[in-house]
Specification:
Ribonuclease iii, N-terminal Endonuclease Domain, Chain A; single chain; mainly alpha; 2 domains; 3-stranded antiparallel beta sheet; Double Stranded RNA Binding Domain
Length: 261
């Protein structure tokens, strides 16, 4: 896709015409595509600005939207909304992925590299909107694309499989689970880790993930199921599933509205 077409498409997604086209071009440019150029040529500086603005915009929005919620609940909602997982998902849903300019060295880095780029570009777009159209432009984009994901369910802290396993093992076996990393495979930029969890010296669970932490979490969930705590182990994922389903429905409605306008 030509640069002109990318700019027109991101303007349509944002609902904003950029007077300074260089800002939105930078917001879409991965550092690998700006090697040898000034630091402003990639999204890194705009990402820094957008990250700070995003926190403030989301904090104000959830503060107004949930007047009876305490500080702890508001913090959980804000943290969930501005997390890399949510931002990359929103960026993908908006259709930003094919608009990102990558250098040769970053092409083909896989889904994990794209998720990180989508997170960074979303923040950079917020920064570019602020510099080109002021706070109102940045707020409008965030409220239309991200705030539909804000639901009260995000304020419910889901049970971590590792925390739940620690609790039940100490209660029923009077000891703590022990985790061991038993494997690491794949390329350096997208590794896969394998961990096992032991209870009383016996292997009770095994799991894989893109990080050691996630592989341990998967192993803990496997152990909970193997030990018979199936309902308890699924409690956290059920809460998250309900929250994500509600958020996804509202977000799709907002996305359709943005595309129509």
């Amino acid at each position: 896709m030509r640069l002109h077409s990318r700019v027109r498409e991101i303007e349509r997604i944002c609902g904003h015409h950029f007077q300074r086209e260089d800002l939105i071009v930078s917001a879409l440019t991965h550092p690998s595509a700006a090697e040898g150029k000034p630091v402003s040529a990639s999204y890194e500086r705009l990402e820094f600005l957008g990250d700070s603005l995003l926190g403030s915009i989301v904090a104000l929005a959830v503060f107004k939207r949930f007047p009876s919620m305490d500080e702890g609940g508001l913090s959980l909602i804000k943290t969930s909304l501005i997390s890399g997982k949510t931002l990359s998902r929103v960026g993908e849903d908006l259709g930003i992925a094919p608009l990102i300019l990558f250098g040769t060295s970053e092409r083909g880095t896989g889904a994990r590299g794209m998720r990180k780029a989508l997170e960074d570009v979303y923040e950079a777009v917020v920064g570019a909107l602020y510099l080109d159209g002021g706070l109102e432009a940045a707020q409008s984009f965030v409220e239309a694309s991200l705030l539909p994901y804000a639901t009260p369910n995000l304020a419910v802290r889901p049970l971590s499989p590792k925390s739940r396993l620690q609790e039940v093992v100490q209660r029923d076996y009077h000891c703590g689970p022990e985790y061991k990393l038993v494997g690491e495979e794949g390329p350096a930029h997208t590794p896969t880790f394998t961990s096992v969890v032991l209870v009383e010296g016996r292997r009770m669970g095994r799991g894989k993930g893109p990080s050691k932490k996630e592989s341990e979490s998967a192993a803990a969930l496997d152990a909970l199921e193997n030990l018979g705590y199936v309902a308890e182990s699924r409690m956290g994922s059920t809460l998250l599933g309900e929250s994500n389903a509600t958020a996804a429905g509202e977000a799709n409605q907002a996305k359709e509205h943005m595309h129509v306008s």
